[in-house]
């Protein structure tokens, strides 16, 4: 089955940038049709959808990161990326990659966490002043 492994987290000052990667391993035969996304969660907070890439190539972002974050897919390396620019203190959280083999489109909005069945272990992002 497909497994997800995040990397690229770390500590950065406000205004800086980080690039997160999510490597897909295992049986990725249907990868191009998967619905994928990035979520984040800080202590005592609910898991929040950040950016999504639909099976049809549609893309959606949370309002809080729109214009600063970019989600992209590297098909040859089976890797999902999240480029994060102009980072703010409120971006501090554990970031998770998620996927589901079910078809989805995100052209009309964000998806809920319970739609995804495959999750990575998370990578910590800490933004300081």
What is the compact description of this entry?
This protein has 129 residues and is mainly β.
Mean pLDDT: 91
Proportion of strand residues: over 45%
Query: What is the assembly state of the chains in this entry?
Result: single chain
**Topology, number of strands:** 11
Main pleated sheet = 7 strands, mixed
Low-confidence stretches: none
State the helical fraction: under 10%
Helices and strands: which structural class? mainly beta
CA(first)-CA(last) distance: 41 Å
Number of helices: 0
**What would the principal axes of the Cα set say about the shape?**
globular
Element-by-element helix/strand order: EEEEEEEEEEE
Question: Can you put this structure into words, describing what you see?
Answer:
By secondary structure, the protein is an all-beta fold. Strands 2, 4, 5, 6, 9, 10 and 11 form a 7-stranded mixed sheet that branches. The protein has a 4-stranded antiparallel sheet with strand order 1-3-8-7, with no helix packed on it. The chain is globular, with a radius of gyration of 14 Å. The chain starts with a strand and ends with a strand.
Task: Tell me the layout of helices and strands.
Blueprint: E1 3-7, E2 10-13, E3 18-25, E4 35-41, E5 48-53, E6 59-61, E7 69-74, E8 79-84, E9 93-100, E10 118-119, E11 123-128
Parallel strand pairs: 2-11
Antiparallel strand pairs: 1-3, 3-8, 4-5, 4-9, 5-6, 7-8, 9-10, 9-11
């Amino acid at each position: 089955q497909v497994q997800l492994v995040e990397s690229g987290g770390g500590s950065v000052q406000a205004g800086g940038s980080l690039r997160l990667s999510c490597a897909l391993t295992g049986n990725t035969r249907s990868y191009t049709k998967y619905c994928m996304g990035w979520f984040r969660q800080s202590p005592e907070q609910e898991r929040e959808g950040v950016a999504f890439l639909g099976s049809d190539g549609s893309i959606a972002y949370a309002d809080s990161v729109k214009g600063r974050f970019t989600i992209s897919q590297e098909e040859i390396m089976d890797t999902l990326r999240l480029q994060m620019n102009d980072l703010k203190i409120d971006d501090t959280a554990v970031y998770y990659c998620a996927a589901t083999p079910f078809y989805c489109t995100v052209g009309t909005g964000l998806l809920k966490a319970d739609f995804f069945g495959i999750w990575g272990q998370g990578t910590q992002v800490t933004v300081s002043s």
